[in-house]
Amino acid sequence: MSMSIKFFGAAETVTGSCYLVKTGNVSFLVDCGMFQGKDVEYRNYEKFEFAPKQIDFVVITHAHLDHLGLLPRLVREGFRGKVYSTQKTSALSYHLLLDAAKIQENNLQKRLSTVALYDTTDAIRTIQLFNSKSYKDVFEDHGVKMQFEKVGHVLGAASLKVIDKSGITGYFSGDIGRLKHPFLETFDTAERKADFVLMEALYGGIVHPDREKTEAEFVSYINETIDRNGNVIIPAFALQRTQEILNILKKAYREDRIKKKVGIFVDSPLAINMTNEYTQSIFANDVQGAELFDFEKVRYIMKPGRMLKNSKGEPKIIIAGSGMCEGGRILGHLSSNLPDPKNAIAIVGFQAEDTLGRELTLKPEEIYINKKRVKVRARIKQFYGFSAHGDTTDLQAWLDRFEKKSLKKVFLVHAEPQRMQKFDEINADLPIYIPKWKEEVSI
Ligand SMILES: [Zn+2]
Fold first, then answer.
1. How far is CA 95 from CA 92, 275, 298, in A?
2. Which residues are within 5 Å of ligand 1 (an ion), measured at CB?
């Protein structure tokens, strides 16, 4: 018996993670992600090249849209198997998928798109299929044994270990976090054996800037803006980045490192729901989430409008989504704050190619938001040291856990091609393989 993997996403690109695994007469998906960015998003609308009904089960590594955003479409088109994830991923996915469905419905209503990939009903049917497993559970479906492993990155994120009936053992990394993190637990470094691993290489060959230095730079960027009486607009992913920014702001506020005459707002229902999931968790340093993220200065905005208007005149820090400025309330804040040189935009997360967020990092003179021209006079600064993704050192530490002589293939995915080539060069002694989109490889 042999196993094969067909790469339906994150092959030579960063988004759309989706791998079809076949072993014997069993077929399952690892992740079912959405493509993000103008050059690839058309792929979300292409017909699936497999029958969703024929997929036996799906495993989701973590609650990011580029890893599960197409799942409701799979369900809409007939998938009825189980969806395995960790407990926290399942809880976070509930909020994420309902929000994603609402965006689909709104875009259709506002005629920003002509087709909705799915709607709220599909999202609810998808959530009903979720089956939570803890990191300790070894579970089995159609004779395939599986286990989740901690990997850092975001709350609930996991790598997946798979053993098929014939004993072929493989690991799907999911997104790999950093070995050192202020509050998230990450992967262990014990040695293990596998026939293949499939891993992300987003920052192959790149070392992240020092985290503490980045935090200090971020805080002084905020203080400079407050001194000008300007606002700081922070596009942030609802999951993990929003909570990390709140954690940094809380520390700075408590230690009097941030000017007190500022209002701090989380203007994103999704980020608020995600933060609530975090607050119920206990983190590596034995603290409860609420102690890490919440403080008296923060205002949470579920319904848009009034609260922000009431605070007119006072400089504001506004955290809103989406993280790559591809939609959501951040667009309104950008439209109203970009034209004024007093204000500042802090880019704190990864910006995929061809997204509005990436465009902003290039400091253009003007941009288009929902087809309207907006002058860019506000300051824009990108901070690289906050990444939830490991840098090349972390990726190496994750990979070095595997006994070299048993590895038959190391697939690199979820990165721009030059990053994977770099990681390949660093690991020239390993059987590295960089698959193409829709390529099928036997193991
Ligand atoms: Zn991720």
1. 6, 11, 21
2. 64, 175
Distance 180 CA to ligand 1 centre (A): 17
Same fold yes or no, 3-207+389-442 and 211-382: no
CA of 14 to the centre of ligand 1 (A): 10
Task: Quote the ligand 1 centre to 200 CA distance (angstroms).
Answer: 10
- Supply the DSSP symbol for 53: G
Architecture of domain 211-382: 3-Layer(aba) Sandwich (3.40)
Q: Which residues contact 218 (CB under 8 A, 6 or more apart)?
A: 248, 346, 348, 383, 386
Decide if 80 contacts 103 (C-beta within 8 A). Answer: no
Helix, strand, coil percentages, rounded to 5, for the chain: 30, 25, 45
User: Separation of 32 CA from ligand 1 center, angstroms?
Assistant: 12
Ligand 1 centroid distance, CA of 64 (Å): 5
CA–centroid distance, residue 253 to ligand 1 (Å)? 29
Question: How many angstroms separate the alpha carbon of residue 17 from the centre of ligand 1?
Answer: 10
Reduced to 3 states (helix: H, G, I; strand: E, B; else coil), residue 170 is strand
Contacts (Cβ under 8 Å, ≥6 apart) of 131: 82, 83, 84, 85, 90
- Cα(355)–Cα(368) distance, rounded to whole angstroms? 12
Provide the residue ranges of all domains of the chain, joining segments of one domain with +.
Answer: 3-207+389-442, 211-382
Q: How far is the CA of 288 from the centre of ligand 1 (A)?
A: 23
Contact present, 104 and 96 (Cβ < 8 Å): no
**Domain 3-207+389-442 in this protein, CATH class:** alpha beta
What is the residue-level pLDDT of the chain in tens, covering all 443 positions?
689 999 999 988 899 999 999 999 999 999 999 998 888 989 999 999 999 999 999 999 999 999 999 999 999 999 999 999 999 999 999 999 999 999 899 888 887 778 899 999 999 999 999 999 999 999 999 999 999 999 999 999 999 999 999 999 999 999 999 999 989 999 999 999 999 999 999 999 999 999 999 999 999 999 999 999 999 999 999 999 999 999 999 999 999 999 888 999 999 999 999 999 999 898 988 899 999 999 999 999 998 776 676 666 789 999 999 899 988 899 999 999 999 999 999 999 989 888 899 999 999 999 999 889 999 999 999 999 898 999 999 999 999 999 999 999 999 999 999 999 999 999 999 999 999 999 999 99
**Ligand 1 center to residue 62 CA distance, Å?**
7
